[in-house]
Fold this sequence. Notes:
The chain has 283 residues and is mainly α. Helix content is 67%, strand content 0%.
Amino acid sequence: MTQNEDWDLIIKPKSKWYQLDLGAIWKYRDLLLLLVRRDFVSVYKQTILGPIWFFIQPIITTITFTVVFGYLAKISTDGIPSLLFYLSGITLWTYFSDCLNKTSNTFIANASVFGKVYFPRLIVPLSVLFSNLFKFGIQFFLFVVVWIYFLITNHSVHPNWNLIWLLPLLVFVMAGLGLGFGIFISSITTKYRDFSFLVAFGVQLLMYATPIVYPMSLVSDKLRFYVLLNPLTSIVETFKYIFLGAGYFSWGSLIYSFTFMCLLLYGSILLFNKTEKNFMDTV
């Protein structure tokens, strides 16, 4: 090799752990697309019903919530039909929980690959984010179909059309929170495996701390402040406020959720970058 020969690929060590190096992720965008396709196809590849499960899961969950919380516990839905009320919360919540659960073991699940091949490690959790975004799109379509039915047949649904442009922002913040929490947990579980046991029921507890199965109007004034500290609360409530006309809406709460998401995501990515340098010694 001569000194003037051009290399196709030059791998350089990161000089500082706080460098995000987003350009490298863009450079490996083809790999990102391949992983998104792999994640989407592999989930239901050997199933009989295949992608139909995208519809079955939210339908069964919605019916279960309607029976348990609507008919047995008789929890109010602010006059919104129970099926529509629970489906709205489940649609958004499923996207968050899937992103969090599937990115929370990134290092452990991919240790064999990470130890052999170089590529930006952040590609893996990002592929989970985008593959679940496709799943969210399908389930959101199901919600829209049910929503249109009740919009025509039930006069209790009064959407706020002037705020519907906020939907992409709500999905973006929900995705950012799921990714942020997920890669934060993934980074610390390389050394402390206890957190991997906390994820499963921790997500369930977080769901009950978020107004998914109950409206915000049932929360007392004394507890409202603490419920709103949960950055997911304003996202779910704004979603319901836009499509159902019932729920809590506040620009201040939305700005808080967005700021929380930015700080969480930035801090988690820095921790992720720091962990990837030596995680093979601890996994």
